[in-house]
Write a structure and sequence with these properties.
The protein is α+β, with helices and mostly antiparallel strands. The chain is built from 5 helices and 11 strands. The strands form 3 sheets. Strands 6-3-4-7-10 form a 5-stranded mixed β-sheet. The protein has a 4-stranded antiparallel β-sheet with strand order 1-2-9-8.
Length: 166
């Protein structure tokens, strides 16, 4: 596991570039991605030695015809009904993976809530506030960024809501 401070990170992914441009504190964690691992998020938690409650996955859902980003702990699942309610929608379903990739500019398993090609409404699970820092994808498989949930919420203009379930 390699760690880089924002000063050591040059170039990088759109997510790390956005973080550097914002001038916020963050840590990059790189690990060797195993394509045979059944869960990108659980693999990240294991590789970094971080509790799965602190590692968050980025999912893209369709809420009433509008793509919406949900950021939830890898230890649980997204509650689609709660996501819809958090953005004052009626119905939510997982977005088509190809559409999610085209819209965000990232590949599945590497979608970051930061530095997306098109800014989408974002909802961060309220449990993020229970931690001083959380980890989210830095924009590619095998690369995570650790930062405070408050900074993540501010940079993504996220709504905090209980959208995860065990």
């Amino acid at each position: 596991m390699a760690k880089k401070s924002k000063k050591q990170q040059s170039g990088g992914t759109p997510a790390t570039v956005a973080l550097a441009a914002a001038g916020v504190t963050y840590t990059v964690h790189a690990y060797e991605h195993d394509p045979s691992h059944p869960s990108y998020g659980e693999e990240a938690a294991e590789a970094m030695g971080v509790s799965p409650e602190r590692v968050f996955k980025t999912l893209v859902a369709d809420v009433d015809g509008a793509l919406t980003v949900a950021v939830v702990p890898v230890a649980g699942q997204l509650d689609l009904k709660a996501l819809a309610a958090a953005v004052r929608g009626k119905r939510a379903a997982m977005a088509d993976p190809a559409l999610a990739e085209r819209t965000t500019g990232y590949v599945r398993g590497g979608i970051s809530p930061l530095g997306q090609r098109k800014r989408l409404p974002t909802v961060l699970d309220a449990s993020a506030s229970d931690h001083a820092t959380i980890c989210v994808s830095a924009g590619r498989r095998g690369l995570e960024v650790e930062l405070s949930p408050e900074v993540l919420a501010e940079l993504t203009e996220a709504v905090l809501a209980p959208i995860g379930r065990a």
